[in-house]
Amino acid sequence: MIRVLVCDDEQLLREALGRIVDVADDLHVVGLAENGSQALELVAKHSPDVVLMDIRMPVLDGIEATRLIVRAHPATRVLILTTYDLDSYVYAALQAGASGFLLKDAPSERLRDGVRIVAAGNSVLAPEATTRMIEALRPDLPDESDQHLLAAIQTLTDREREVLTLLAAGHSNQAIADHLHLSRHTIKIHVSNILAKLNLPDRIQAVLAHTRLRPHL
């Protein structure tokens, strides 16, 4: 059973999300929080596997709450729920340690699948918003650490660079496999090789790195 905490400052949406999640046999809502501070308290109390986190909330926003949850409770994963208007905030939330993001108007089954994917230790990126988020960013010239990362990217094979580009666009392993006419297992190997060569911990950080350095690639 995957234990889920829902955090949103809008009561109707918070309760609706709770019902959407709780209807699945393998998902169980352990609490509803109306702000980041309350989410921290409930995470400490219930140790959920996944927190569905809004971003703009009173008392403590979702970005800082995500940072504190990930730091204090590494076994708990955070999945950001956002709208098109929050792209820059999403970027900050991913940097804070969130495992991905979905749009608030995503179909119910996609939301439930997102919870399952994140609980399994993987990442979720909403393709509909990823491109908009990337275009909204205006990176400065790369600093020294980014120069090292740029050099590492040059060591990727053409196929690995292709996979990284599709990854950064928000596509799942299966979608990348379908696009490149390869098996999902092969894509998993490519992603693992990419992370190893770039010395990055997960695909979220790979997406952030590609987004930041895209104008210089």
TrEMBL record:
One function term, GO molecular function aspect: DNA binding
Superkingdom of origin: Bacteria
Record Pfam families: GerE, Response_reg
GO biological process, one term: phosphorelay signal transduction system
Entries under InterPro entries matching the protein: CheY-like_superfamily, NreC/VraR/RcsB-like_REC, Sig_transdc_resp-reg_C-effctor, Sig_transdc_resp-reg_receiver, Tscrpt_reg_LuxR_C, WalR-like
UniProt entry tagged with the keyword DNA-binding: yes
Response regulatory domain boundaries: 3-119
HTH luxR-type domain span: 149-214
Signal peptide (from-to): none
Positions carrying 4-aspartylphosphate: D54
Keywords: DNA-binding, Phosphoprotein, Transcription, Transcription regulation
This protein's name: DNA-binding NarL/FixJ family response regulator
Organism: Kribbella sandramycini
Phylogenetic placement of the source organism: Bacteria, Bacillati, Actinomycetota, Actinomycetes, Propionibacteriales
